Amino acid sequence: MILTPLRAIRKYCVRCSNNQSLKIKLCPSVNCPFYNHRLGRGGGRILRLIRKRCLDCGDGRFLDVKTCIHSDCASYTYRFGKNPKLKGHCSPKALEALKRARGTAQTSKKTIVEKDSN
């Protein structure tokens, strides 16, 4: 089961606190990118936070993030800063259909405006 990005952060924090979820509120790591989201709440650019944390873990080297061996880490799925659940939602076919639909809508608007001006 793939966790949501926010739940992945929460799971990471629970593991970091030795599986003692009560200690998460008292977390001393205020410089951790996950600090503000450690309780499983919050919004914003969560995937970017996960990417930043993974870069921290890999000493800032992109290659270390790409070749990460910690597949048991809750952040592993999102280490590239992307949500794999959304992969393929905008395929080339879907993109072309969207462009055609937008073109049709713009043509319809022009026709209406031209009729109104006459």
Domain tally: 2
Unreliable spans are: none
The succession of helices and strands, N to C, reads HHHH
How many runs of DSSP E, i.e. beta strands?
A: 0
Portion of residues within helices: 40-55%
Largest sheet: none
So how many helices?
4
Structural category: mainly alpha
Q: What value does the Rg take, in angstroms?
A: 22 Å
pLDDT averaged over residues: 80
State the separation between the terminal residues, measured CA to CA.
60 Å
Shape: elongated
List the helices and strands and how they pair.
Blueprint: H1 5-16, H2 46-57, H3 62-66, H4 92-117
Question: What would a concise description of this structure say?
Answer:
The chain is built from four helices and no strands.
Description:
The structure is a single chain. This protein is an all-alpha fold. It has 2 domains: 5-87, no CATH class; 88-118. Helix content is 47%, strand content 0%. The protein is built from 4 helices and no strands. It has helices at residues 5-16, 46-57, 62-66, 92-117. The longest helix has 26 residues, at 92-117. The protein is elongated, with a radius of gyration of 22 Å. It starts with a helix and ends with a helix. The mean pLDDT is 80.
